[in-house]
Amino acid sequence: MPDLVELILRELERRQVLFARKIGVPYIASIGAHILNLANYAGHGFIWEHGERMNLRLHLLMIAPTGFGKSLYRKQFLSGEYAILKDSTIKYANILTITEAGLVGTYKPGEDGEPVYIPGVAFKYREHIIACDEFHAISAMTKAQHSKTLDEALLMVLDSGEVHKDLASGPIHYSTQFTLWAGTQPVRLDLSSGMGRRFLAMVWIPNRRQRQRLRIIRRKAHRIRPDFQRLEAIRKGIALKAEQAKDIDDVEIPERFYQLMDELEVVHYIEALYERFVLGYALMKGWIVNEGEVRVLKVKMTCLLYTSDAADELDGVDLGGRRI
Predict the structure, then answer these.
(1) Are 69 and 53 a contacting pair, CB within 8 Å?
(2) What angle do CA 182, 139, 91 make, to 5 degrees?
(3) DSSP characters for 127-179?
(4) 265-269 mean pLDDT
(5) Handedness of CA 74, 75, 80, 82 (dihedral sign)
(6) Which of 20, 113, 129, 162 is 20 to 30 A from 56 in CA distance terms?
(7) Hey, how many other C-beta atoms are within 10 angstroms of the C-beta on 156?
(8) CA distance 35 to 178
(9) How far is CA 16 from the centre of its chain?
(10) What 3-state class would DSSP assign to 272?
């Protein structure tokens, strides 16, 4: 089974993408979690919670000053001819901002006067990874008169994925399973009303040494082309992971993981984000084993270890509120 974690990290490093082995890993895990979530809802279900299929989406929020990687990572995975996920089985979309009607959908008068349903982003892109470089642009819309309940709708679609809205023109009811990748600047951060616990947050305030390295990295990136052979291997590998995920019967997270959560006193809703992280990572690593007639996705504790050739890459990055 291909190790897509290493394949993608090597491609990012070859492209001189800043701190790939630190910041890039959550994006890779989120891709794996997205694949698992679609398979869990489409098939017989292999992981459950409180009698319902467990929602495995790992939404990401990168918090960094302007110019320090929020757009860069989005572009590497989701934008342009040589995006890592282009021509893979992963559907994706990029948005700038959105209203409540634009998110959940609405009705407009038709030519005959009858209301016509206009689907929103949450329905049109219900199986996509959606990226937004500046989450502040969305959160600011919650203060607009026409989108006063946007925050409530966004909380709902990022959590359960269930959309329920009754309008005078008709009801809107559906399920969405999109994964959101967002970015924001620290000074513009507003994660009230439970929005923060929907995201795995990556907080990076670069220090002087890191800023110096970034100048060097940007210069080295000149004239670097993508590795087309590796890109093809990644895209085929993602298609294979999507097929393998459909055949998973069970998942196994080692007890040591939960012991670590207890030792760090991680609050339960953040622990759920870490569960999705390690499951997505495990799929991308290819940790699926056959136990008799049962196919099990087995998490290994090595998924919690980060490696780096540069010591200063280990400084200044927080993952979900924990320094790593």
Answers:
(1) no
(2) 35
(3) TEEEEES-HHHHHHHTTSGGGTTHHHHHHHHHHT-EEEEEETTEEEEEE---E
(4) 93
(5) negative
(6) 20
(7) 19
(8) 11
(9) 22
(10) helix
What tokens were used for 33?
A: 């979690």
The secondary structure element, H or E, covering residue 233 is helix 228-246
DSSP-H helix ranges across the chain: 4-14, 20-42, 70-78, 100-104, 121-124, 135-141, 150-159, 208-220, 228-246, 255-263, 268-285
pTM for this entry: 0.90
Closest CA to 163 of 102, 122, 132: 122
Residue appearing with tokens 């994925």: 161
Q: What is the gyration radius of the CA atoms in the chain, in angstroms?
A: 20
CB atoms within 10 A of CB 252: 14
297-320: pLDDT as tens digits: 999 987 655 443 333 443 444 444
Altogether, the residues listed in the chain come to a count of 324
Residue type, 147: S
Encode pLDDT of 68-104 as tens digits: 878 889 999 999 899 999 999 999 999 987 888 889 9
Query: Could you tell me if 61 and 179 are in contact, meaning their C-beta atoms sit under 8 angstroms apart?
Result: no
**Contact status, residue 287 vs residue 184, Cβ threshold 8 Å:** no
